[in-house]
Design brief:
It is built from 6 helices and 5 strands. By secondary structure, the protein is α/β, with parallel strands linked by helices. Strands 2-1-3-4-5 form a 5-stranded parallel sheet, with helices on both faces. It is globular, with a radius of gyration of 15 Å.
Length: 155
């Protein structure tokens, strides 16, 4: 079995369920291939409406969201998620964008985005982010079971 450089991402079966919502198939393939290099599965949606339906039907621990999509943009999708169920209001949403401007980041934070991943995507940053949210999920499971959360750093 291949060693995982991400601090045991698969230890105890506590991986992360990740969804990437992006209309660009090349972008989805790139992220899928990066994650697959560490045996991390990725669910994909080619538009925001499909992504919202997948979130309603699934149990995702982390959502990567493109901003510029036809029909419904990422900001609208984030707002709809944050207005949804308790789970949708708390699932981390990471905006994947080529626009690092503070104006875009401010709009995204106001809509409910949790964090940002800049394009072009750096593998190290991607894996750090996945590991952080995996640890956050594990800490939440421990807290729910009465065990020590083990994660103190705020996002």
């Amino acid at each position: 079995m291949k060693a995982c450089p991400l601090g045991g991402l698969r230890l105890g079966g506590l991986g992360v369920n990740i969804l990437y919502i992006d209309d660009d198939a090349t972008n989805r393939a790139l992220l899928r291939d990066m994650l697959a290099s560490e045996d991390i599965p990725l669910a994909e949606a080619g538009d925001a409406r499909t992504g919202l339906k997948m979130v309603e039907a699934g149990d995702y621990d982390l959502i990567f969201m493109d901003l510029r999509m036809p029909d419904m943009n990422g900001l609208t999708a984030i707002r709809q998620l944050r207005a949804g169920s308790a789970r949708q209001q708390t699932v981390p949403i990471v905006v994947v964008t080529a626009d690092p401007s503070e104006g875009v980041r401010s709009m995204c934070r106001t809509a409910g985005a949790t964090d940002f991943l800049d394009k072009p995507i750096a593998m190290e940053k991607l894996f750090e982010m996945v590991e952080f949210f995996r640890k956050r999920r594990v800490a939440g499971l421990r807290a729910a079971s009465g065990a020590s959360p083990g994660l103190r750093r705020p996002i």
